[in-house]
Design brief:
By secondary structure, the protein is an alpha+beta fold. The chain folds into two domains: 27-239, no CATH class; 244-286. 64% of the residues lie in helices and 16% in strands. Strands 2-3-5-1-4 form a five-stranded mixed sheet.
């Protein structure tokens, strides 16, 4: 009876050891498979990076026409200088803001320089308007006054945009494979190796997505820098010399002379007062001496 029990115990121990050994072998084989697939994914990722930058890559060299629904991506910027009529600077600023809002845009920055009687007022507005309303915005802003200078620039980023979209699709595929491998990892070492590659892939993917969002914003909305100023005072009076201009010039000269005369009197008045007091004192002394009896 004891012999039978010993045989049963030995048989159970053998079965348990066999199961543990097979489990370790499966785990080792699973980790080896994960590492092998991780190496293949890394090689494909490296090949994708080189292909994205090379001229022979299907994704990197794809043209805009090969992607359905993709149009040209152009960043439109312009600088427009306008001279408005005298005393119309504030009205022109309000009208420029209204033009931007009416066309679906907005003002992202403004600067105003208040002048004195000799320096005209001037300022600057930075407007963002939809790309399809760019021409209408330039035409409306140009009618605020007389155009002093105008600069327009368009930067085509279609090729870069297509390359970034291809790179995004590639990185998203690599990310999905790495997430699958992470779930299949049986040991901490294998999981850490997959996680390291996954972190780098996700970081690069976010950078690509951020660049795409930036290009979307810059191409969907055009940027117009509007510089406004009132005419110079010499320019305002260069059209002719009339009676009103003569009266203004005479009044200005009279006020200038009166101002300097007042300054001169204010500066000399204390000296005149002291001299007058001295003269009165000397006169009083002479009268007293003349009135004194002689012996």
């Amino acid at each position: 009876m004891k012999t039978i029990r010993l045989l049963l115990v030995a048989l159970c121990a053998f079965v348990l050891l066999s199961a543990c050994s097979s489990g370790d072998d499966e785990a080792a084989s699973g980790d080896a498979a994960v590492e092998g697939e991780l190496g293949a994914v890394a090689e494909r990722d490296g090949g994708g990076e080189g292909g994205g930058e090379g001229d022979g890559s299907d994704d990197g060299a794809a043209s805009v026409a090969e992607l359905p629904g993709a149009g040209p991506k152009v960043i439109q910027t312009a600088t427009l200088g306008v001279v408005v009529d005298e005393e119309r600077f504030d009205d022109a600023v309000r009208e420029a803001r209204g033009i931007a809002v009416r066309l679906g845009g907005f003002v992202v920055g403004s600067e105003t320089r208040r002048g004195d009687e000799d320096v005209p007022r001037s300022g600057m507005l930075v407007l963002r308007v939809p790309g399809e309303s760019y021409a209408a915005a330039m035409d409306a802003l140009g009618r605020l006054g007389e155009i002093d200078h105008e600069t327009e620039e368009g930067t085509d980023v279609s090729q870069e945009y297509v390359d970034l979209e291809a790179r995004q699709r590639h990185l998203e595929a690599v990310e999905a494979q790495l997430l699958e491998l992470l779930e299949r990892a049986r040991t901490v070492q294998a999981a850490l190796a997959v996680q390291s590659h996954l972190n780098g892939t996700q970081l690069e993917l976010e950078q690509v997505r951020g660049r795409l969002r930036f290009l979307d914003d810059r191409t969907e909305l055009a940027t117009i820098t509007l510089e406004l100023r009132e005419p110079e005072r010499e320019e305002a009076g260069a059209g002719g010399w009339g009676v009103v201009d003569a009266w203004k010039a005479g009044a200005h000269a009279f006020l200038t002379v009166a101002r300097w005369a007042f300054v001169l009197v204010a500066a000399v008045a204390p000296l005149l007062l002291v001299a007058a007091l001295g003269w009165l004192a000397a006169r009083a002394v002479r009268r007293r001496r003349a009135a004194a009896p002689t012996t």
